[in-house]
Amino acid sequence: MDPVTEPAPRPRRKRMTGKERREQLLDIGRTLFAARGLDGTSVEEIASAAGVSKPVVYEHFGGKEGLYAVVVDREFERLLKLVTESLNSAIHYRSKLEKAALALLEYIEEHPDGFRIIVRDSHGGTGTGSYASLLSEIAGEVEHVLAQEFDRHGYDDKFAPLYAQSLVGMVALTGQWWLDVRKPRREDVAAHIVNLAWNGLSGLEPKPSLDPRQRRKEMERMGKRAEKAAAKAEKAEEKAAAKAEKAQRRARRDFEEIVDPSA
Length: 263
Hints:
10 helices, DNA-bd_HTH_TetR-type_CS, Tetracycline Repressor, domain 2
């Protein structure tokens, strides 16, 4: 008979440090809050998903409200930092707008749970910032940038807050829509947002792009098409004028024949 072999002992699961446990609870809470909101998520669900007892959640955060507040604050600061850095990383004002729009869309694509959480209204008693207050802070950064540009061009900088709110609102609402549809790709969405903000409805670029070289090529193509259209229109006008002149000569000749048949 073969000797009975002892089963290999199971490796002991490494015990998490307090910091690691806290991060685990934050990750789990972020996912649950994004799907169900604060009211729809229970401490029992958080503890169960983490494989711990409810007291552990209370120990780290004092309850689900405390956990929710930390999650929102983290996402709030992460997005604000991304957009602020993007505004300060470019020199040209169109580039600033492009980078800021792209930063928001990148955050949405890479941290959809975080974005779903911060777009919810802040919950009473948590002390956390809402999406509206986040946008207000971002608008404050944009306002500062616009005020400098307005002053440089001799515009009235008292309207900088209005334009800042308009620009941020346009990007933010588009971002909320794009969160679920995810089409077209984020670079194309950013390019079209900037196209409208920079050029206005009357001067939209047919094929907007974040690449300045591609924009230049497209502008050159548009210029050539405009030249061809102008030349075609000029030729049509000349043809119409010649036709009109011919008709006038015929009418004059017919009139002369009626007045003086012997002519």
